[in-house]
Amino acid sequence: MEIRVLTVEDAEEYYSLRLRMLRELPGAFATSYEEAKEEGIKQMVERLKSTRENFILGAFDGDCLIGSVGFLRQQRNKLRHKGFVLGMYTHPDVRRRGVGKALLENLLARVRSLPGLEQIQLGVAADNLAAFQLYASLGFEAFGKEREALKLPDRYVDEIHMVLKLN
């Protein structure tokens, strides 16, 4: 397995994976499948113009993209001590094989060297125990629960907010 920062050349494959994740797990992501389809692949190209502080990692099995995770650092002066993990997903065929953990470990190794970054936050659906346990195993701690954070057509999804302090 290779883990690397995705580039604009990966847009089509990432777009396909993103649509799959949004369709498969609507309660895990703020963006809906329909919104992503409407935005189209051009939005993916923009998102894949990465910087040292904002990027999307991809896990590849050969040429096949099997997982991804994003990082976004706050830009305002009073918020620059925080960054966010976004869009964590692994293909169903490779779950519980360490792909998600490897993606997160790679992300953490990359961002630990960012000057002034003190904490990394994320949100996880309260009913996603496997994801919560993965984050906790890497040192993330829950600091709050947002009830009805997402509204789906048939239900609400509560979200647990987690943080990893780097200092």
TrEMBL record:
One family name in Pfam for this protein: Acetyltransf_1
Domain N-acetyltransferase: 1-167
CDD domains, sorted: NAT_SF (cd04301)
InterPro entries in the cross-refs: Acyl_CoA_acyltransferase, Bact_Acetyltransf, GNAT_dom
UniProt entry keywords in alphabetical sequence: Acyltransferase, Transferase
PANTHER family on file: AMINOALKYLPHOSPHONATE N-ACETYLTRANSFERASE-RELATED-RELATED
Protein name: N-acetyltransferase
Organism encoding this protein: Kroppenstedtia guangzhouensis
